[in-house]
Amino acid sequence: MHPVDGPFALTLRQDNSERLYCLNSHAEQAGLHCGMSLADARAFCTDIVCHPARPDLDARFLVALRRWAMRWCPWVGYDGTDGLVLDISGSAHLWGGEGALLANIRARLGTAGLEVRLGLGCTRGAAWARAHYGTQAEQPLDTLPVAALRLDDATCTALQRLGLRTIRELSDTARAPLARRFGPALMMRLDQALGHMPEPVTPALDPPHYGVRLTLPDPIGLVSDVMAATGRLLDALCAKLHAQGTGARALVLTLRRVDQGSQQVELRLAAAMRDAARILPLFERGVATIEAGFGIDQLRLEATLTEPLAAQQSGLGAASKAPDRLADLVTRIGTRIGLENVRRFLPADSHIPERSFLIAPAAHSAPATGWRSGQPRPLHLFAPESIAATGPTPPARFRWRRMHLHTARAIGPERIAPEWWFDDPNWRTGMRDYWCIHTRQGRRLWLFHTPQTPGWYVQGEFA
Hints:
Strand order of the largest sheet: 12-17-16-15-14-13
Order of helices and strands: EEHHEHEEHHHHHHEHEEHHEHEEEEEEEE
CATH class of the largest domain: Alpha Beta
Oligomer: single chain
Low-confidence stretches: 316-321
Number of helices: 13
């Protein structure tokens, strides 16, 4: 955080132009406002300091600020993308009254370097109006402009043209003509601010926490005992995961010893799981490496990464489905060599042999079928290796890798043209005619001939 003593604004690209997204009080006093283009803002205020806005980081900060604001009351919700609303009806007396509570909020946020706007009211609409348009937290509501009722710009402009500039002037006007002209939304916002229509504060719910803990009366140290305790934690954790319709992808088992030291066993799964019987054996390798010292008296298991997991039908008419043994195998191998080192081949949208496949981590990809090539492809593919041969037809005899080979059968040709939109140096010789060559020595090779610059190459070998 770097406070700026002067006009400061955050900019965001909107409608192909940089516009002011948020600004401080110095920038507002200079006549700037949100939504103004950056070019116009620099014309009005030449010494303004600007930085690009990060709405994603603002959202994360607002989440943390909401949890921190629960120190004053438990009923805290979001108000748009840049505000919080607190229902202090049952907790203001704990802080010495509403005025003392507002002073405490302002002091603590000021200590953290935050400049905030606070509003207090008997209704949510009144509090919002005083926070955004009032000069004081308890300014009379009827003296505020009509824009404080959370109306759109077009409605505010139309009301001002009718001479209705404040909430008092609006409330003193006959309701029926206003409702016919502006619709029910105007009257609804007025009634919400004045308390004639309820507008409850809905607190935001914290995301589910997938963590369980077990404190033991006596320390343990044997692997079998630790595994038994881990099984009890897994049963409770998987029940939580099942209730939320999710599965765990990463688990962390923390073991606390009696000397206050702790060790962790991290388990990364190849697929989302919530079956305790399948997950428990995967912990055995990591638990065996733990130094128990004088004993372990507390275990904590947390799912640090979760994914939605579709519910499976159960009952008499449900089709039995075997567990994903491939995912268990990938997880077991991944605990030894690293989960990202277990990879699989996936088809790619290209007819060029070198680009017809992708190599992706098996834990973060699903097996795919439907390779686009209708012709057989060699199991072993390598960089083209030149052989001594001439003519457009496969040679009857050739030497490759110090071996003298004789052609017994040739299948082809299969012509593959280069992808002109890619500048691949390996394909600058032009199109290729591929042949599947069966040799008398038992090898099945993949050869190609380049008509533009005559030459023969070996690029692969069939199994």
